[in-house]
Amino acid sequence: MRDQIKDLYVGVDVGGTKIQASLITGTGSVLASNRRSTPRDCPSEVTIDVIEESIHELLMLQNYSADQLEGIGIAVPGVVRADNGYVVVTPNMNLSEVDLGRIMGERLGGVRVAVGNDCNLGTLGECWLGSGRFANTAVGIFVGTGIGAGIVNERRLFLGAGQVAGEIGHIVLQIPCESWQEQLRIKKSNRKQISQTIHAKKSVKTKKTKPITNRLGLVQCGCGNYGCFESIASRSAIERYIREAVACGAKSSITALNGGKLDVIKSGAIAKALKGGDEVVNVIVRYAAEVIGYACLTVQHLIDPDVILLGGGVIEACQKHMMPVIEAVLKSDNLKSATDSRRVLVSSLGDSAVVLGAVALVKGGGTSDVDRVGESMPKYSHLLMLADDVIHIDDIAYMSDFLLLPDGEIKARTKIPKKNPNGFRLKDIENAVQGGTDLLVLATPEADKIVLSEKCNAYLHRRGIDYRITKLKDAVQLYNNCNGRRAAVFHFGEK
To answer: Does any domain span residue 299?
Structure first.
C-alpha cells in the first residue's frame, strides 16, 4: 500500500477524441494518468459516464477513493460558466447545456468540482508551472485539429463579458471581401447578391475533401465565417492542403506514412514527413507556421503580453520546423516596443498542461487566479557529498548517473552519449524538466569543457528554462540553494 497523500486532486481533459484523467498533488506533481476514447454519436449521459468511470478507475489503480480528494478540475472544449461549471455549448461534442459541475459533484460524493474551457486551463497550467510561470500577462495559443487560446492578465484568466474571450481561431486573417477597385467595377444590381455569397453562414453538406469556399476562394470555417485563422493554419487546414497537393499530382511520402489514407492525417505522420525531407509537407507546414507567426504578431500588437505560449499537437510534433519561422516573423516587426522583454515560448507541460490547469482552477477555488493557487513547492531532499563521486540523498548513496525531477523524484539515467560521454543528450534534458522547473542543473566532472548542443539550447530557450553546467560538488550546492522548482542530471564520469 502506497503512502497516502493528503493534498490530492484529479484533473480531467475532455477532448474530442480522448479523455485524460490525471492524479495530481497540490504542488503539481502528476502521479498517474489514464486515457479513454471519447464516445461519439451518443447522448451526453454516455460521455458523463465515461468521465466518471475514468476518474474511478484512476483512483482505484492508485489505491485512493474520491472522498480523499481535495477537488476535481474538468476541462472541456467549449463555453463554460465559470461560477458553477455549467457547459453552455461544446460545438464539436455532446456536452452542450449540461450542468457538468453539479452532476459530477453529486456522482462523486460531493467532492468539490470546477469546470473550465480547455484552452483557458492549458494557459492557466502553463502560467502555474510551465513556460508562463514568470509572466504577468500571457496568451496561450494551442494549435491542433482547431486553434484555441487562453488569456492571462495580471496573473488571472481573462474570460471576457460573455466568457468567450480567447477564440483566436476565429479572428479573420483573410479579409472576405472584394477590393474597393473591384467593387467599383461590380454593377450595383449585383452587389447585394455578392455580399450575401461572401458572408453566407449557412452550412452546406459536402464531402470533407471539398470544403465550402466563397467567391474569392476562401474556405468556410467550422464557425460559418470565411478567412478565419483556424481555417488556414490548424491541423485540419494542413490536412486539406496536403490532400489538395496530392490530388493535383504532387509526390509525397505522407500517404504511406499515414497508413495509406489522407482523410485524417496524424501530427506524428506530418512530423515524420518533415524529418524525411518531404518537399510538399515542408512547404505546407512552413506556410502554416508563417500564418501562426503573423497571428502572434497581431496578438502582440493588440495585447502586448509578456509571453505568447504555443502548444497543441501540431506545435509539439513540428516545433523544430515551425518555431524558427514563427520567431523570424516576430523579429521582422517594424513597430518597435519600449522594451525587449516580450517572448514567444513553447509549452513546457505538453499533454499535462490542461489537466494541471484544471487542478489550478479547483485549487484556486474556481477563481482562475494563478497566484491564489499558491507557491507550494514539492519537498526537495537535501543533497550531501561526503566523498568524491558519491552523493547522499535521504541516507542513500548514489555513485552512478541519475536524474532529479521537478517533483523531487529520483530516476536512473539509462543512456550516456557515445560521442561525448561527459555531455548531455536532448532526451536527458526532456526527461529531467517535464513537470515544470525554474532551474536545470547539469553536473559532470568535465563541466568546463562541455557545451550544450544547438538542439538542447533551443529546447531550453524556447521554454524559458535557466540552466547551469557545473562540477558535481558545485552542483550539489547549487541544487540545495535554489529557492524555486529545480531539476538536475548528475553524471559521475567514466569509472
So the answer is: yes
